[in-house]
Amino acid sequence: MPVTVYILLVFAVLLLSFGYYASFFIDSKVYVKAFCRGQGMERKIALTFDDGPDETMTARVLDVLARHHVKAAFFLIGEKAGRHPELVRRMVREGHIIGSHSLTHTGLFPFANRVRIAAELEKTRDILKAITGKTVCLFRPPFGVTNPAVAAAVRAGEYQTVGWSLRAFDTRRRVSRERIRRRLLRGLHPGAVVLLHDRCDKADSLVEGFIMTAREKGYEIVGLDQLSNIKVYEN
Asked: What residues are labeled active site?
């Protein structure tokens, strides 16, 4: 193989690798400056939930959080929020933070253009404001994927993008909740932003077990806004 062709192939592989890293690892902060973890060594962590509200499991998760006096952040799908406004109002009433997780969370969302992404975010913001009276500032991209189009929509809407530093992988149905809990505990660290899903089977038992064990290890579970001075609402 000619040297020039070899160099071009190496360059192409490196470019593709960088593109994959930049888009699929939200903590890369290449396209958006996402808040992914708190600073410092204080044993404080925050719980965050994606993909809700779920008509069955979300209420159970909220019951667990209330029982243990824990405040969390919920990144909501606009269409689901519109179908279950009572759950969204309960979240706010009980002191939890809400944010946007897009309108539909389809697999095609990361491939949409800037105009369509911005429209989804604005529609979700409108839905959540109509339900709660609050204009949300926080956004977590579906699948954690970012790119120039997502970045442009985030800037246009003046959103604070939120990622994570500890992921439960709780959407994997064949993995036991106990195994997921143990994995979370192994990865626990000061300032952790923990990613969970309140739509998943046995989410309530997973969250309860994690809260209890994390506290036994000396961790305090606080609101997302207590890990950093991020703005969560416009009003």
From this structure: 50, 197
